[in-house]
């Protein structure tokens, strides 16, 4: 009787798997949205744009490496020279260039805009996968048309953000102004900032992120230990940032952490913005698929906008709002296309549909999985 009562209580308080995924992604986006604002604060304090990511990735590596070592002992393949070269290149593209473009773009724009441009990553990933023939485009079906229109909308949104800033639509500290500078935020000095250069850097950030997703897919098929893969990528990124910063930042004062606020921004960015985000992302991709992760990107933009407005007094520009709306609309069209494509593949060949294939390989995995790329690359991290 006691066992029956215990079992019923356990069932009563058991959290459904989908609810766990939603909670995890909410924490993920809240943490990453905060990272946009925290890094903007760090830039306002005058931190080096090369030394800061160096410290950030050291913390991320120290946080991830122990978990990777102990949790993936059994499924980690032997390390070879070929894997090391691939990890080095993926670390350079997916972390060093990715974060480098991001921090230079953020320095010239805003947290909200930086977050908004990241919504274009699924569309850019689709373009790259299609060019590499990892993704099929069928314009005779609704899913193919949705993906193409969504991709075009995301590209149009990125172009609008880059080429048209427009008037100030909302300013929390004053009425809409007629300032004419590239940047008129209520925080930081607009002097020396260049909106167009910042937007181009953010587009470069999205391109690097998409390249990382596409290029890591074949690597993860041979090296399925994801935490170990990310740890190696972080290790090489630390070496790369250290070498670049060592050559450029020759003033020893730049390497010194000047205040408790700087310590906090480095800790947050390294432990929350990198380590926690990587860990949650890997877990959710395993349980829900890359498509599930992509669906939450607009929440990050909304949270970043609210945080930036409250904490930094960020102003909103018409061009940024129009561009962000186009990018988010494009994101959901691409997601809709992928969802319809998954249903079509399941109906046509239910035995080898992606979700069932994952269930056979790992019975503990979710049945919600829908790949961001084709089944050949469905194991990639979004």
UniProtKB/TrEMBL annotation:
The keyword Transmembrane helix applies. Keywords: Membrane, Transmembrane, Transmembrane helix. The chain crosses the membrane at residues 21-42, 54-71, 83-106, 112-132, 144-164, 195-215, 227-246, 266-284, 291-310, 316-336. Pfam families: EamA. GO terms for molecular function: transmembrane transporter activity. GO terms for cellular component: membrane. Residues 364-382 have a biased composition (Polar residues). PANTHER family: WAT1-RELATED PROTEIN (PTHR31218). Belongs to the drug/metabolite transporter (DMT) superfamily. Plant drug/metabolite exporter (P-DME) (TC 2.A.7.4) family. This is WAT1-related protein. It comes from Corchorus capsularis (Jute).
């Amino acid at each position: 009787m006691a066992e029956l009562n215990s079992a019923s209580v356990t069932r009563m308080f058991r959290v459904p798997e989908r609810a766990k995924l939603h909670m995890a992604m909410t924490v993920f986006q809240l943490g990453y949205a905060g990272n946009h604002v925290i890094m903007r604060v760090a830039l306002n304090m005058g931190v080096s744009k090369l030394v800061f990511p160096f410290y950030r990735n050291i913390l991320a590596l120290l946080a991830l490496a122990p978990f990777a070592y102990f949790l993936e002992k059994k499924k980690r393949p032997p390390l070879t020279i070929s894997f090391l070269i691939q990890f080095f290149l993926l670390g350079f593209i997916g972390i060093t260039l990715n974060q480098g473009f991001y921090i230079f773009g953020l320095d010239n724009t805003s947290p909200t805009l930086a977050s908004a441009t990241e919504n274009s990553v699924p569309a850019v990933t689709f373009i790259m996968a299609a060019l590499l023939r990892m993704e099929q485009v069928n314009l005779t079906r609704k899913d193919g048309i949705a993906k193409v229109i969504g991709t075009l909308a995301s590209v149009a949104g990125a172009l609008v953000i880059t080429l048209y800033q427009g008037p100030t639509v909302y300013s929390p500290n004053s009425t809409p102004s007629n300032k004419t500078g590239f940047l008129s935020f209520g925080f930081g000095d607009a002097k020396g900032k260049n909106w167009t250069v910042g937007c181009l850097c953010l587009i470069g950030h999205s391109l690097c992120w998409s390249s990382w997703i596409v290029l890591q897919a074949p690597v993860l098929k041979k090296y399925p230990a994801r935490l170990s893969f990310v740890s190696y990528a972080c290790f090489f990124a630390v070496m790369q940032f250290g070498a670049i910063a060592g050559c450029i930042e020759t003033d020893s004062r730049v390497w010194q952490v000047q205040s408790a606020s700087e310590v906090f921004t480095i800790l947050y960015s390294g432990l929350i913005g990198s380590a926690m985000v990587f860990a949650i992302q890997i877990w959710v991709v395993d349980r829900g698929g890359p498509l599930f992760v992509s669906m939450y990107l607009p929440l990050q933009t909304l949270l970043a906008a609210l945080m930036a407005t409250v904490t930094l007094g960020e102003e909103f520009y018409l061009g940024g709002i129009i561009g962000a709306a186009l990018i988010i609309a494009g994101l959901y069209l691409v997601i809709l296309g992928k969802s319809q494509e998954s249903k079509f593949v399941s109906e046509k060949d239910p035995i080898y549909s992606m979700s069932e294939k994952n269930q056979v390989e790992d019975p503990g995995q979710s049945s919600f999985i829908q790949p961001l790329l084709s089944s050949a690359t469905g194991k990639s991290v979004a």
